[in-house]
Amino acid sequence: MSIVIKVKEGADGLWNVCRDINPVVMQLSLGSAIRIARGLGRATHDDTGMAVLVVMICPIGMTLLARYARPAIQHSTAAA
After folding, report:
1. pLDDT tier, 34 (very low <50, low <70, confident <90, very high otherwise)
2. Within 10 A of 4 (CB to CB), how many other CB atoms are there?
3. DSSP string over 4-32
4. Torsion of CA 69, 32, 27, 18, to 10 degrees
5. How far, in Å, CA of 54 to CA of 5, rounded?
6. Which of 29, 57, 71, 77 is deepest in the core (most CB within 10 A)?
7. What pTM did the predictor assign?
8. Is the pLDDT of residue 10 over 50?
C-alpha cells in the first residue's frame, strides 16, 4: 500500500496539494505547491515508513515528482 500526494491545478488557476483525496494546502503557485508536496511526502514516509508517491496531475496526464519507498538509512560512525 502507498500514499499518494497530488499537486493539482484548481479552477482558479492556482495549485493545491492533496493527500490522497483530501486537500492539505490550497491556492499556491506551482513552485510552492511542488516544494510543499515533496516535503510532505518525505515527512510522511519518515513518519510512517510507508511508500509515498508525489505526483502532479495536469490535463495531459500525470508526472512523477518524487518517490519515497526505501527505509531511511541510518549512518553510524564507528569509533576507531
Report:
1. very high
2. 16
3. EEEEEE-TTS-EEEEETTEEEEEEE-HHH
4. 0
5. 5
6. 57
7. 0.83
8. yes
Cell 526505501 identifies what position? 70
Q: Which residues of 17-52 are buried (b: 16+ CB within 10 A; e: fewer)?
A: bbbeeeeebeebeeeebbebbbebbbebbeeeeeeb
Q: Which amino acid is at 26?
A: M
Alpha helices in the chain (DSSP H): 30-48
Q: Point out which residues pair with 28 in neighbouring strands.
A: 15
Grid coordinates in use for 74? 541510518
Write the burial class of residue 8 (CB in 10 Å: 0-12 exposed, 13-18 middle, 19+ buried): middle
- Cα distance between residue 31 and residue 48, in whole Å: 26
